[in-house]
Amino acid sequence: MKVLLAHRHRFSLWTAPDWVAPRLRTEFPAHEFVHLVDYSKMEEEIRDAEVVITSFLRPEQFAAARRVRWIHSPAAGVHQLLHPAFVASDVVLTNARDVHAPVVAEHVIAQIFALAKQIPACVRYQQKQTWAQQLIWDGSPRPREVMGATLGLVGLGAIGREVVQRATALGMKVIAVREHPEKSAEGVAAIYGPQDLNKLLSQSDFVVLAAPVTAGTQHLINEKSLGHMQPHASLINVGRGALVDETALAAALRKKQIAGAALDVFEEEPLPADSPLWQLENLLITPHTANLTEKLWERHYAVICASMRRYLAGEDLPSVVDKSRGY
User: Fold this and answer.
1) Cα–Cα distance measured from residue 284 to residue 266, given in angstroms and rounded to the nearest whole number
2) Where in the chain is the domain with CATH 3.40.50.720?
3) Which pLDDT value is given to residue 56?
4) Which of the ends of the chain has fewer CB neighbours closer than 10 A, N or C?
5) Mean pLDDT, contiguous 10-residue spans, the chain (327 residues)
């Protein structure tokens, strides 16, 4: 069996390290592992591959993949892979949601504390050598407690479940929106369907977006939905940039219609230097760093190995994506 590893990104951490393929060959000596350092030979090498590890696959490359049975994406989001021929095929798609979820959940909690305790404002005053105790207290919003606050979570997948664990440990009340609200979730006080998103927004002190990008979630947060958030509330997005209408959010932040926001993902990445988002003092920008950790590829490797063993044994694979739904 041939396994093709082709995962290169402009950001070095997201590129598969050189040690992955040799270790896989040692772990599974009966099988062939080919690691492409770029995509120039992708169409050639994919022709006889049964398993492909990649997050980027053009329609013509998939058309050339005559023997492929399983594609594993080292990313959590897979919308960029879901072109019609692939969706219609019987090729299994898995993702790395369980690799990224704990780290991203930690980032969410860091953003909640940063927004609640007005850390960005403190940093700005520090740079000006200003003792701003009274200024920060007189500002809007004031520093607040996290314990007892309501977290509205949009998405109860792998990331969402990890966020729930950490938020409830801090004494937060968690409510959520998910596609199937009839499914319960430990630690969640109330679960709504997508049609009740505005109900969640109106009750939340912090709104966290951890949903996949689908036809139904594009610009889920827009001018109308922002109007349902409380003036003291903040928005956090660690899902995908397309979940938020950035123009509408910028307008709401300028008018202080909501207290603040923290964005780790954007509709265009890198965020252009001329984006008006950079100028908003009540917006905390992190440059898609929520899932960064030195342990990332060790975790990827463990998941790939465990999945390979299941695949070779004919067992069900973990983290299978429903291609028709996009997650």
Assistant:
1) 12
2) 2-98+293-312, 100-285
3) 93
4) N
5) 96 97 98 96 97 96 97 93 96 97 98 98 98 96 97 97 98 97 96 98 98 94 98 98 98 98 98 97 98 97 98 98 94
> What is the reported pLDDT for 142?
96
Chain centroid offset of residue 48 CA: 32
Q: Give rounded-to-5 percent helix, strand, coil for the chain.
A: 40, 15, 45
Q: Which CATH number fits domain 100-285: 3.40.50.1980, 3.40.47.10, 3.40.50.970, 3.40.50.720?
A: 3.40.50.720
Q: Does pTM surpass 0.85?
A: yes
Which architecture characterizes domain 2-98+293-312 according to CATH? 3-Layer(aba) Sandwich (3.40)
Distance CA 246, CA 218 (A): 12
Nearest partner of 246 among 214, 283, 289, 205, judged by Cα: 283
Active site residues: 240, 269, 288
